[in-house]
Amino acid sequence: MNPLHKHSPLHQPRWWALLVIGLWLGFSVATLTRLPTWGLVPIAGIWLLLARWRRWGAPSPSRPVRPIWPWSLFPIALWGLYVYLADSFGMVDLGAVFFHLQAGMEEHGGGDRIGAALLYTLSMLLLLASFTWLVRHDHRWRLTDRLLALALLAGNPMLYGIGQRGAAIVTEDGAWLERRYVEPVILEAPRDPPNLLLLYLESIERTYADRDRFGDAYAHLKALGEKAVVFEGVRQVDNTGWTMAGMIASQCGTPLMPAGLLHDSQFEPLGHVVPGVDCLGDMLDERGYTLAYMGGASTRFAGKGVFYRDHGFDRILGREELEPRLEDPGYVNSWGLYDDTLYDFTVEEIRRLEQQDGPWGLVNLSITGHAPNGYPARECRQRQGEFDGVDILYSVECSAWLARRLVERLEEAGLLKDTLVVIASDHLTMRVSAWEQLVAGKRDNTFMLLGQQLEPRRLDVEASTMDILPTVLEAMGFVIDWHRAGLGVSLLSGEPTLVEEHGLDTLNARMREETALQERLWEGLAPLQGPPPPAEPVVEQVVETPEDQAPEVPEELP
């Protein structure tokens, strides 16, 4: 070997360590900003030029190598976790993390994430080793290590969010949302209440309707919207941005605030999901509805089966129940059934429900649009051509077409007479191939109603998915208290929503400070602390504090 090669940069551990640090720095900046992925290259280059100018890591005869462990290793690892979550989901939702840890993550379909997680872990180990080498060989980095550790901890958004939740315990007003919660009450029901078909389209937000950005990916849902009541402007508030949270927001009128320490056993999955509130299923069950849930994924994941069992549903059909009925046992994805198969079973289930006495309700959850790439069905591949495995707009178009075809099949078969059809996204999508276009402007959820008694129209609103519950109840002909249910307001009533009155920023800020509503959601799960206290005399509740006594409900019933 040429002796000169031993002194080239590639044969010096210093430059390998600096390169790893630079690439991680560039990748982190590109991930947490709107820079394209290739933006990591110039950032890493700037880092290496700065390192060469400052001679970082260069040996100094007067400063021997010290075998120490840097204080910054743990803070760097925490930042690595945050960057991984941001790269995987687009936005890091601590509520989702806490809820899934407690509700259980068995039978998840994120097998494709395991490989990415292993690569992240390997690269993080290389980063920690590289930083350790730099600190041991450069006394300047040793001197600043503790200060850097403190800065990294203070600036980590994950720790900031945890600190905000901790501060809620001692906040001056932890019941702002609780005072605005209206217990769902049906005052009057129609003589012949309609059936209900609620189709959740996984991650198919209405933002995709913008043809300038997304072409015709949403065209089939637009076509359905021509004969529906379409709501534009249904935003996403915190703690409603994943599947279980989205379903609870739209069926219970509340955000899904994780149980936290209210959980009866911190080391076992939840035995109940939001047992302290009545939801859509509870109210329909009380009025004689036969209720069913269908989804291609496992109902054991994230407490879906527990939630529906707790809230009035008679039949809960997920992967475990439906997969044995497949004609082709190999036609499944990592989550479960493809949606063309699921919708075939949905038609069969509705035929069964139609043969029973009394009204029925069916909630259906698709999988086609699931981030990051979607799971387009075989029938879509035959219709749309080859799928490259990445393009989310291909999957969006597939999901929209399958939903439209399902509704048309049911209409042609006469299975939607006296039925309200609700089509909604469960939440805004997480990081996908069209992420930069999605976050370039305001985003909103899909929400439309199809029914014989509803005049097709478009309503421009400022609302959230929590407003879906009262809107669906009124569209079904039920009279509800004050046009409200939970934190939601019927979008058919003309009454102002919480988003209109207070704005998303205020709602999200209050969410981080709320404790009383969280306690209501998980009532009954708090660990017992000795015998219950003696009953106290009932006193009239003060529902407003002086600073927020603005009238928020009418003084008289309309």
TrEMBL record:
Domain (Sulfatase N-terminal) ranges: 194-477
InterPro entries, alphabetized: Alkaline_phosphatase_core_sf, OpgB/LTA_synthase_biosynth, Sulfatase_N
Membrane-spanning segments: 15-32, 68-85, 114-135, 147-163
Record localization: Cell membrane
GO cellular component annotations of the record: plasma membrane
Membrane topology classification: Multi-pass membrane protein
Key word Transmembrane present: yes
Keywords: Cell membrane, Membrane, Transferase, Transmembrane, Transmembrane helix
Record carries keyword Signal: no
GO molecular function: transferase activity
Highest taxon in the source lineage: Bacteria
Stated name of the protein: Phosphoglycerol transferase I
Natural source organism: Halomonas lysinitropha
